[in-house]
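Predict structure. Chain length: 247.
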Amino acid sequence: MSHSRDRQGWRSRLPGRSPEEGFRWQGREVSRLEGFADAVFAFAITLLVVSLEVPRGFDGFMEVIRGFPAFIASFLTLVLFWNAHYHYFRRYGLEDAYTRWMTLMILLMVLFAVYPLKFLFGLLLPFGSVNAPHIETWAQLKRLYVIYGLGLGGLYSLYMALYFHALRLRRELGLSEIEVILTEAPLWNFAINVLICLISVTIAVFEWSTAWPGIIYSVLVPLFLTLNGWWHRRRVRAVRARQEQRY
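Prediction complete.
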């Protein structure tokens, strides 16, 4: 028993283990579900490696170097989804059947997304690579837009369902007014991403533009996510000001 308490105290002092400001973390220990999710994310990142075999010549070595930017972009994309999953479990500590099934579906989508991510960022960041992916026709580009938009939108939808589940259980979890706002913020972030993915797919399907299905991700996503963050931070400040006046 004392060994367990010592281990828990040691874990609580690790960097990043402290609860975020304004939110009481209810998930302290890593559950079997979260551990399994971490293993799947780690396996997905392993699949991003261009080749497990060390190049035998300088040309092969340079080909690996040229593919490194695409690897970094794919890695960071997976890390963003892992971080959202991490925060969900730390914030709410939910392990019910709904959370388990949503997590399993997320992991399925993550594993499926590995090679499309490698292809997409290899296409966008070739850096002179001889073996870089390429698109030959508009029909192929259209299919890429649709596959990427539906896949990414589906993954964001699953995260949106997770956070909506936590919001629905706000009374059972004992969430404060500020914690409810901090739960709604990522929920709206995911909803915005889903909407933009659907807009991109719609533009591609109806062939309204060959460039805008991709451009809107770099234009609309930062704009609307910034506005969403500003709005919810303003709500948090308003609640804190009202609480300070009360006391």
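Summary: The chain has two domains: 30-134, 136-247.
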